[in-house]
Write a structure and sequence with these properties.
Rossmann fold; seven-stranded mixed β-sheet; 32% strand; 25% helix; OB fold (Dihydrolipoamide Acetyltransferase, E2P); binds S-adenosyl-L-homocysteine; 11 helices; alpha/beta; 3 domains
Length: 469
């Protein structure tokens, strides 16, 4: 019997290219080697973890030379936090690799004729771009490999920052996060200091003990700042002095809420945040449209790039004012509202009822009278009777989650034969699969990637499809 080779290390491999999802590749003796933890241009030893006939995969374990493309990551938490995996690459290189990934995936999986892919729309600000951040407080600090081997270092420590991927009970203690503009870090540090000074127990997510749990900070373009402090027990007398302290020290806070979470998980969807100070929501704008965002509302996290993404979507919809437009997977209705001026009618469909409530409220806030929104699964809602009631679609905008569209919905879209489809995607692989299916009747006429999340591997991609005559 052939024995499996263990611990094979390929020495001094020159990393050739980015291969998608943060992995790179090199070719050795005609075989493609996928490499983790490297960037193109590095000269590395690779420990192979899986080997097949045409390809293998492994991890860079030793660097003989660092790629000349590399830059010093600007965040001191890089590599530990896991939030911004690509900070060792300059932003223009990140964009280049994202562009290439869209091309590769659409051609490999899409297998339909494609137009030239427009150059990715990068972000003007590659820092401080998030409007919402969720911090976690915990009683176990994530330790680096060196710290783990130091008997004088204990992981028991009251910390505030982010969960570490793969270690649900450990929190990276963050000093400065560059994803959201100040006072985000100052508020987190103030809460942490207050809790330590007043001997509050920080939450232990494994044992379900402790008081201080999480905090969401939302900073809008208008400057409105909404903070929600989540604690594990209903002890208002203990909590209120902290809230007063925040109001007194951070006049920027326009809404302060608190939430009691006695559950085992951190999710807020089944909890009721309580308004302590301010009006209880924040207002965000996209062009001239206004959106009311409550503590549980969904809204695209990068406002500046969301505006660009929606502008691309509106351009691709090519509206003249007479169209009946469907906005499928509409969330809080933001795309539909954004394109509404150019359409006769907007019909939004979304599974989360609260999001549909927000969509209706936002439509009213913007004084729109040509929108209707439906809560339910697109598969259940979008049947013949629905299209008969709301009208034959001229344009269908679809923005599904990472899994892409359900095959039944794709079939329905093929039956409906709308002249144009605009497909907004956060996962090019499933988009490519769906474009292939839609290829039965549609031609892909425009493709525009947009970078919503600098320094991460995420890519948003918009495609225009035109019904073949
Ligand atoms: N277009 C929105 C949200 C897109 S995110 C925006 O730009 O903000 C995708 C949305 O699809 C989520 O709101 C999710 O709740 C919704 N969703 C997921 N599966 C669904 C389904 N089967 N039917 C309807 N909506 C769904």
């Amino acid at each position: 019997m052939k024995r499996k080779k263990k611990n094979v290390v390929l020495p001094a491999i020159r990393v050739e290219d980015h291969a998608g999802e943060g992995r790179c590749l090199a070719r050795v003796d005609g075989k493609v080697i996928f490499i983790e933890d490297a960037v193109p241009g590095d000269l590395v030893d690779v420990r192979i973890s899986k080997s097949k006939k045409d390809w293998a995969e492994g991890k860079a374990i030793h660097f003989h030379e660092m790629s000349k493309d590399r830059v010093q990551p600007f965040c001191t938490h890089f590599g530990v936090c896991g939030g911004c995996q690509w900070q060792m690459l300059p932003y223009n290189k990140q964009l280049e690799y994202k562009q290439k990934q869209v091309f590769d995936v659409l051609h490999r999986i899409g297998r339909v004729p494609l137009p030239e892919i427009m150059p990715i729309v990068g972000a003007d600000n590659d820092r401080y771009y998030r409007n919402k951040i969720e911090y976690t407080f915990g009683n176990k600090r994530y330790l680096s490999a060196a710290e783990l081997n130091d008997p004088n270092v204990s992981s028991y420590s009251d910390v505030g920052g982010f969960h570490v991927r793969g270690f649900f009970d450990k929190v990276v203690d963050i000093d400065t996060c560059h994803l959201q503009a100040e006072p985000t870090n100052e508020i987190r540090k103030a809460v942490k200091k207050w809790a330590i000074d007043h001997q509050w127990p920080f939450y232990d997510i494994r044992m379900h003990t402790g008081f201080l749990r999480t905090m969401q900070v939302r900073l809008c373009r208008s400057g409105e700042l909404m903070v929600n402090v989540v604690v594990a027990e209903n002890k208002p007398d203990q909590l209120k002095p902290l809230l007063d302290h925040l109001v007194a020290n951070f006049p920027q806070i326009t809404t302060l809420l608190y939430t009691i979470n006695t559950k085992a998980n951190d999710s807020l969807y089944d909890l009721e945040p309580i308004v302590y100070h301010g009006k209880g929501y924040a207002m965000e704008t996209l062009e001239d449209f206004r959106f009311k965002i409550g503590p549980k509302s969904f809204f695209q996290t990068n406002t500046a790039q969301a505006e660009k993404l929606y502008q691309v979507t509106r351009d691709f919809a090519e509206l003249s004012g007479t169209e009946t437009v469907y906005d499928l997977y509409c969330g809080t209705g933001s795309i539909g509202i954004f394109v509404s001026k150019g359409a006769a009618k907007i019909i939004g469909v979304e599974t989360i009822k609260e999001a549909i409530d927000d969509a209706k409220e936002n439509a009213a806030l913007n004084e729109l009278t040509n929108t209707s929104f439906y809560a339910g699964d697109v598969i259940d809602i979008c049947d013949d009777a629905f299209f008969a009631l709301e009208g034959k679609p001229d344009v269908i905008i679809t923005d599904p989650p990472r899994a892409g569209m359900h095959e039944k919905l794709v079939q329905k879209l093929l039956d409906m034969e709308a002249p144009r489809i605009v497909y907004v995607s956060c996962n090019v692989a499933t988009q490519a699969r769906d474009l292939n299916l839609l290829g039965a009747k549609y031609e892909v006429t425009k493709i525009q990637p947009v970078d919503m999340f600098p320094h991460t591997l995420h890519i948003e991609n918009v495609a225009q499809l035109i019904l073949r005559k």
